[in-house]
Specification:
CATH architecture: Alpha-Beta Barrel
Number of helices: 9
Structural class: alpha/beta
Largest sheet: 8 strands, parallel
Low-confidence stretches: 264-282
CATH topology: TIM Barrel
Shape: globular
Radius of gyration: 17 Å
Helix content: 25-40%
Number of strands: 10
CATH superfamily: Metal-dependent hydrolases
Strand content: 15-25%
Distance between the termini: 31 Å
Mean pLDDT: 93
Order of helices and strands: EHEHEHEHEHEHEHEHHEE
Length: 282
């Protein structure tokens, strides 16, 4: 069985001391590939460095999360474009809108989101999208750009049936996290996961966040990690009425298609040249 975790915050300080061990545990748990999420320009660079270091197992994204939207000026956007040219970087994001916390002004969030969608259309790269309490604004913006986007995923989906079908109508992928394992707040997602077509379903941990509550005993540090993706798989399979192997094969094939991933090394040592500490390119 092969699993692909489409969203892991490997640059988070929770992984600073034992990243290599975390990746070894992931591989032992059949999580053979994962996508390290970029949430700021600096984190996107760090994610690319991690992907370059562990390029048999990790790729990365480059983007600015809506929480940091007010930092995305023209210079930062140019840096994102430079990072996106690296072979380790396979998508633009994490970008989108978050009207739940409003850590950045909503106008800045929308401007940053549109700028990153424009970058994705220019580079013909898929987009990794965050949306929280902002469907009413995210949807019309996405509609304006959808014809030019090669692909997009709404990651960590936790919204309504209406929102889900709005995204499916735009032919988007849907990422499911350990939220589905939460007996307190995951009921709606457990019902909705059946509505996701097989060819649009992806799974993720969003580690170190969203530790599956079905994991017993809980780790003492309370940290989620890619090795626990199997708990998401189990819940998705159960509530879709499918077997584990089928969901694993389907979601892995979808992830490879979405991120344009091959098997094994994405580039050979003979093709790579140094771009500075930890960064390599053709």
């Amino acid at each position: 069985m092969e699993l692909i975790d489409i969203g892991v915050n490997l640059t988070n300080r929770a992984f600073a001391k034992d990243l290599e061990t975390v990746l070894e545990r992931a591989a032992a748990a059949s999580v053979l590939s994962m996508v390290a999420t970029g949430t700021t320009v600096e984190d996107s660079r760090k994610a690319a460095e991690i992907a370059a270091r562990f390029r048999r197992q990790v790729v990365s994204t480059a983007g600015v999360h809506p929480h940091h939207a007010d930092t995305l000026g023209s210079e930062a956007l140019q840096e994102l474009e430079q990072l996106a040219a690296l072979p380790e970087v396979v998508a633009i994001g994490e970008t989108g809108l978050d009207f739940n916390r409003d850590f950045s002004p909503r106008a800045d969030q929308e401007k940053a989101f549109e700028a990153q969608l424009e970058l994705a259309t220019k580079l013909k790269m898929p987009v990794f999208i965050h949306q929280r309490d902002a469907h009413h604004r995210l949807l019309p913006i996405l509609r304006d750009y959808r014809d030019e986007l090669v692909d997009a995923v709404v990651h960590c989906f936790t919204d309504t049936r209406e929102a889900l079908h709005d995204y499916l109508d735009l032919d988007l992928y849907i990422g499911v996290t350990g939220w589905i394992c939460d007996e307190r707040r995951g009921d709606a997602l457990r019902d909705l996961v059946r509505d996701i077509p097989e060819h649009r379903l992806l799974i993720e941990t969003d580690a170190p966040y969203l530790l599956p509550r079905t994991l017993k005993p809980r780790p003492r540090n309370g940290r989620n990690e890619p090795a626990y993706l199997g708990y998401v798989l189990e819940a998705v399979a159960e509530h879709r009425g499918q077997d584990l192997e089928q969901v694993a094969a389907t979601t892995s094939a979808n992830a490879r298609r979405f991120f344009r991933l091959g098997r094994g090394l994405r580039i050979s040592d003979s093709e790579a040249v140094d771009l500075g500490p930890g960064l390599r390119s053709h």
